[in-house]
Amino acid sequence: DTGVSQDPRHKITKRGQNVTFRCDPISEHNRLYWYRQTLGQGPEFLTYFQNEAQLEKSRLLSDRFSAERPKGSFSTLEIQRTEQGDSAMYLCASSLVHNEQFFGPGTRLTVL
Amino acid sequence: DQQVKQNSPSLSVQEGRISILNCDYTNSMFDYFLWYKKYPAEGPTFLISISSIKDKNEDGRFTVFLNKSAKHLSLHIVPSQPGDSAVYFCAASRDSGTYKYIFGTGTRLKVLA
Is B49's CB within 8 Å of A44's CB? Predict the structure, then answer.
């Protein structure tokens, strides 16, 4: 399968714990995006990378959130000191610069 | 501020008939629009897109219409099939689609056999 993959698919954690998600994009794609989706809403943009450079961060991305794409391939999204309001589906997408974005299956986070 | 709006949360259509999903946007800087389909427990899947230089784009059973003056686009599915039952998201971008996507809240389509 050569699509976008995300790991883990589900994560349950207690409030205050740190969590890290991984995204592996389609191999030739130089852009990688993170979105968050809550119930009844569409995906909301969090941040994106072109190669290893993080080009934009949404106001939704508080200082507890950090994303990296160290070698311009896979990316990680870390949430520190999780809160119940962080419970959501975290989606990763990748694209070439002038092409549509392809999404992974998402990581569903539940913060208890 | 919801820049992309899908005002119908759900739609039911008989198999074989036309499904019409609507989307409105407010930002005149948007110049590239897309439709994604989402099944439960999966990520959104790209369906069809349209640039603002066009007013129609067709791909098989799917056609997207863009009315720039009304800031409105619609997705037509003809004929509708039970496998089309999913949540459909409209998305908009600027800079010819190289910018981030802004999504609507989705419309749940149910195609009845």
Answer: no
Pairing of strands A10-13, A107-111: parallel
Contacts of A65 (CB under 8 A, 6+ apart): A46, A77, A78, A79, A80
Asked whether A75 and A32 are in contact (CB, 8 A), the reply is yes
- Under an 8 A CB cutoff, do A103 and B45 touch? yes
For tokens 């990763």, the residue is: A92
Q: pLDDT 10s per residue in chain A (112 long)?
A: 579 999 999 999 999 999 999 999 999 899 999 999 998 899 999 999 999 999 999 988 889 999 999 988 999 999 999 999 999 999 999 998 778 899 999 999 999 9
A48 lies within 8 A of chain B by CB? yes
Q: In this structure, are residues B70 and B52 in contact, taking their beta carbons and an 8 Å threshold?
A: no
**Searching chain B, which residue's CA lies closest to the CA of residue A97?**
B98
